[in-house]
Design a protein that fits this description.
By secondary structure, this protein is of the alpha/beta class. It has ten helices and 14 strands. It has two domains: 61 residues; 259 residues, Rossmann fold.
Length: 329
């Protein structure tokens, strides 16, 4: 976008993100990425939007790979609004076959499901393992107006969860998706989402993966180093009985619905995560085991809220797909 005479003008078109921009004479130098390609540098003409690729760091790898199709869909929510949902297909997709599907639950919670490239939550990697990925821009994500963004605060178990279910229910109507082989995966708020859905999915999901998620909101309030955030997004402390927003938040804590858990769950957590302490993951894992539900706990003592070390990332990927394949294939 550029601002001219008080008017905003779009410069570029396409299914991608520009993640950084700098002036270079009469051109813009920008980092461009998508769900199908990591960041490379491009020179962009601000007058025409024409982009010329400058770097080719990853070409030697990507010239050997086939990417899956990325499709934009719009799904009606339960309150009648239009929600952008990305659907990522396996490479060499065959519409005459049936595939398992994964509901991807975004973290943040206020971070958009845009055309980002991740070295861990990688949609093309998921699709290459023969899964169709359903990635909704549920309530609480930026890019769709301030009202849409703020509707998640104080309502973690509300419309945002309805949005998740609307997305997976609509896309799984397709004949090439096996509705009996659905999984849900996510980290941070996405991990909370998986824990919450575990007690509310009515049998939809046959496998779950929660990474660094909030499980017990009462404990989370007293454990996190991000006090401003729980005061803002949960509405305050759980002991504020006259605080309607806070009481609504804590009443939706996933640990209160463990009695309804049915699906096998892989819990992943980092020992140096002070935003959401590893004890949240331990509680969720123990709850599943005590309920007699198949569960696994993958613990990284040297990782924080992210998995940053390469060998840990390799292990993460192996356990992620081993778990999904065990129950969805």
């Amino acid at each position: 976008m550029t601002l001219e005479n008080g008017e905003i003008r779009k410069i570029t078109e396409g299914t991608h993100n520009y993640v950084s921009v700098a002036y270079a004479g009469d051109k813009l130098i920008a980092g461009k990425q998508s769900m199908s390609h990591p960041t490379e540098l491009f020179s962009v003409d601000p007058a025409t939007g024409e982009a010329t690729q400058i770097t080719t760091v990853n070409d030697n790898i990507f010239n050997q790979l086939t990417m899956g199709k990325v499709e934009e869909r719009w799904v009606k929510t339960t309150d009648g609004k239009d929600m952008l949902v990305w659907v990522i297909f396996p490479p060499h997709f065959d519409e005459s076959k049936q595939y398992p599907a994964l509901l991807y639950c975004e973290g943040g919670p206020q971070s958009t499901v845009s055309q980002f490239w991740s070295y861990r939550w990688n949609f093309q990697m998921m699709a290459a393992n023969d899964y169709i990925v359903v990635a909704p821009n549920r309530r609480g994500l930026p890019g769709f107006g301030q009202e849409w963004l703020e509707e998640i605060s104080g309502d973690y178990g509300g419309q945002c969860m309805e949005d998740y279910l609307s997305a997976i229910d609509e896309v799984s109507k397709e004949p090439y998706i096996d509705e009996n082989r659905l999984g849900a995966v996510g980290a941070s708020f996405g991990g909370f989402s998986v824990y919450w859905l575990a007690g509310h999915h009515d049998g939809r999901f046959k496998a779950l993966i929660a990474h660094d998620g909030m499980f017990n909101l009462d404990a989370q309030y007293l454990e996190t180093e991000e006090m401003w955030f729980v005061n803002w997004d949960l509405g305050g402390a759980f002991w504020e009985k006259d605080n309607a927003v806070a009481q609504k938040s804590y009443a939706q804590s996933p640990h209160l619905f463990v009695d309804k858990w049915t699906a096998p769950i892989l819990v992943i957590h980092g020992g140096l995560d002070y935003r959401i302490c590893f004890t949240q993951g331990m509680q969720a894992y123990n709850a599943a085991v005590l309920r007699g539900i198949d569960a696994e706990f993958l613990y990284f003592p040297d990782e924080n809220h992210w998995v940053l070390q390469p060998q840990n990332g390799v292990l993460w990927q192996r356990r992620f797909y081993n778990w999904l394949d065990k129950y969805l294939k």
